Amino acid sequence: MSDDTRLAPAPLEEDELRSLDAHWRAANYLAVGQIYLMANPLLTEPLRPEHVKPRLLGHWGTSPGLNLVHTHLNRVIKARGLDALCIWGPGHGGPAVLANSWLEGSYTETYPDIARDAAGMARLFKQFSFPGGVPSHVAPETPGSIHEGGELGYSLSHAYGAALDNPDLLVACVIGDGEAETGPLAASWHSNKFLDPVNDGAVLPILHLNGYKIANPSVLSRLPERELDELLRGYGHVPIHVTGDDPMSVHRAMAAAMDDALERIAAIQSGAREGRVAERPHWPVIVLRTPKGWTGPAEVDGLPVEGTWRAHQVPLAAVRDNPEHLRQLEQWMRSYRPEELFDEHGAPRPDVLACVPEGSSRLGANPHANGGLLLRELPLPPLEKYAVEVDKPGVTLHEPTRVLGDLLQDVMHATSGRRDFRLVGPDETASNRLQAVYAASGKAWQAQVLQVDEHLERHGRVMEILSEHTCQGWLEGYLLTGRHGLFSCYEAFVHIVDSMVNQHIKWLRTTRRLPWRAPIASLNYLLTSHVWRQDHNGFSHQDPGFVDHILNKSPEAVRVYFPPDANTLLSVADHALRSKDYVNVIVAGKQPCFDWLSMEQAKAHCARGAGIWEWAGTEDGSREPDAVLACAGDVPTQEVLAAARLLRRHLPGLAVRVVNVVDIARLLPSEEHPHGMSDFEYDGLFTADKPVIFAYHGYPWLIHRLAYRRTGHRNLHVRGYKEIGTTTTPFDMVVRNDLDRYRLVMDVIDRVPGLAVRAAAVRQQMEDVRHRHHAWIREHGTDLPEVADWTWDG
User: Which family does this protein fall into (predicted)?
Assistant: First the structure.
């Protein structure tokens, strides 16, 4: 169907028009009631100050527009038998969506104490933004929601993620004025170049322009219609406009726009699925322009409110103290004619509910919005198929992520029929050595393809776009609707989604306390191209701090892993992909890395999360170790093992214990994290009074923060990344940050009582090698031969 095709939908019958308006008015009434009232919900008596909440919280401005969208989605879902979901992007849109959920009955089914009667209405009103109640956002507590409209920018990417591999699903997405100005939202418009009309569902963006944000006009609302059309067409959409402030005219226009959009979507999908159309489609977008705070007070205290920024939150702010405000509130609420909308018991009248679909077709009851109900276990093959042989530790090398890529290839193969696994990343799948997956699935792509291109595929399930925000949003929407996935990213640049993952963790923490929310597959990050092997890209690509951010979050929801080799990466990835309701962060290298553990040993070590590598140390069990060399991360592990070998050679009488930590949360006390160790365990592993030299992948103060309450903390000395980076050799990076093997040996000598004098000559040798290193790399451009050619020969 061409962009210029204009369909002629049948006009609304008068009875249907009246019913739609009744539903919309009822939703508006309920939205206002939630913001203001704690008693007298049906206005059966004159409104008094004590009926009004002492603290007025909430946002009216966006609510009437959201109510309009919900009403008209009800109409088309019921008329066309659609399977539909809606993402409510505008911030603080809770009053509208809660109102509609209560009207359709899904809210009462979820929360039986909020019945569809006067008593239930009173509870609905009082609980909103009230202590012990519900938030003002469309939050996890809201039936039918997979998106919290708190932080703005993510609605459209969530919508596309939900539509992926859901060919029969329509995902409507309301984008608010403010959200439309964010960078993440702007990038999300390009998602239509990745949406497969054969295997994916459809996304219907509804750009709701009511003119204002909190205190300023919105950019897109002030663009001339032609300029806005050019922008949206440039994004690959066909705009359909609905503009007005007369309710009946807007109802007619909105119904026609919905019918037009859905006919276009049906034509696109049928053309693609029947093989009649192959070029990239141009999907419809509805541009809805209605006044901010529509149908609310036109003027308050002599100042205009409706259609201005003043309608954003609470238009009448002094209702308890100002009799005129109280009078205006009652007049406003009675303008919806509640006696026509609710019977004497407070139940919605049949005319109000005429447009509402039934059962799981209701927006608040669609199982896609409670994705754990649809989740199937991921078919993961036995790890032994991919395990690397380790006859002796520290002799052979493999690229850990390349090994993982073979496993992910088979997961892609195993899910090719059911299509419920996706790999996302910002143009880095091959760079991160995961390109084996292309044998099972190409990269999703609907735009032009040239002969030089590789692995682009209209039906592909590998998603690459150079926007970490969009990758994150796609995957979140995909997981929240009951599927599985993995996000592969350069370690330094995953910080771009710091705020997004924070919101997702808050969602998970909340849903864990909602028994009706079924667990979803975990959000899994693979962070590679990491700080210690970004020697070619330099300082700009060196930042290991994402884990610091993650470990600040809800302990029951976050997990961070540092597998030191290929087999441990396989074991950790297997665990993460099987898990539910977590955010798993896996930090692993893509460059050749020594193999330390067999598959059987790796599984046992990962299950422990932290353990002694007896073969690497020199303690014989007859006495406590003199020092502990601990490590977390692949490069720190190699440096610790090399330091242990030097100590074995130069100080053979020294009892050294080597401890490797895979699960970094193990360092926390058991009462602070589910994976934490008791003090008894911790002291048994690290000792209570011996020096511990800890080589850590990231910023060293994180380890101190995790272990600050431990008995032996005063003996803990951490080496890690000190924000010293450049374009240099791999070993020079660790030397510059004092994480190298020679520095670690010096640390042991400095901290074991009596060694400073006895081992002064050894310490001097270590210092001399560091000086020789600096001169060598400046002359040769490569690392010292004893470093570059090192293997474990213990």
Answer: Belongs to the XFP family.
H or E stretch including 33?
helix 14-36
* Tokens found for residue 761: 């000559």
Q: Which amino acid, residue 442?
A: G
Which of 639, 644, 641, 681 minimizes the C-alpha distance to 663?
Answer: 681
Beta bridge partners of 488: 526
Would you call 408 exposed, middle or buried from its count of C-beta atoms within 10 A (0-12, 13-18, 19+)?
Answer: buried
In 3D, which of 102, 210, 200, 213 has the Cα closest to residue 159? 200
Q: How far apart are CA 567 and CA 657, in angstroms?
A: 22
Question: Where would I find the H helices in 59-104?
Answer: 63-80, 94-104
Residue 53 has pLDDT above 50, yes or no: yes
Q: What percent of the chain has pLDDT over 70?
A: 99
CA dist., res. 757 & res. 670, Å (int): 39
* Helix or strand run (H / E) with residue 283: strand 283-289
- CA pair distance 609, 284, nearest whole angstrom: 50
SS3 label, residue 6: coil
The structure tokens listed for 381 are 């093959």
CA dihedral 55, 61, 63, 67 (to 10 degrees): 150
Can you tell me the distance from the alpha carbon of 145 to that of 368, in angstroms, rounded to the nearest whole number? 9
C-alpha 51: how far from its chain's center?
A: 40
**pLDDT range class, residue 437, cuts 50, 70, 90:** very high
pLDDT of residue 211: 93
How are beta strands 303-304 and 299-300 bridged, if at all? antiparallel
Q: What is the CA radius of gyration of the chain?
A: 30
Q: Which of 516, 449, 505, 440 has its CA nearest to residue 479?
A: 505
| Average pLDDT for the chain | 95
The whole-model pTM stands at 0.96
Cα distance from N-terminal residue to C-terminal residue, the chain: 71
Tokens read off for 239: 């705009």
